[in-house]
Amino acid sequence: MNTVGILSIEEIKRRIQICDYLCVAQLFLQDNILLERPLEFDDIKPRLLGHWGTCHGINVAYANLKAKYKDDPNFSFILGPGHGFPALQANLFLDGELLKIDENATLTKEGIDYICRNFSWPDGFPSHASPFTPGVITEGGELGYALGNAYGFALGHPKKTIAVLIGDGELETATAIDSLNLRNLLSGSKNGKILPILHLNGYKISGPTIYGRKSERELNEMIRGFGFTPRSIEGDHTEDFQKALKEDIESPFYIMRTEKGYGGPNRYHKAHQIPLKNPKTDEKELKELEEWLKSYRPEEILTEITKERKDD
Question: How far apart are CA 213 and CA 36, in angstroms?
Answer without folding.
Answer: 43
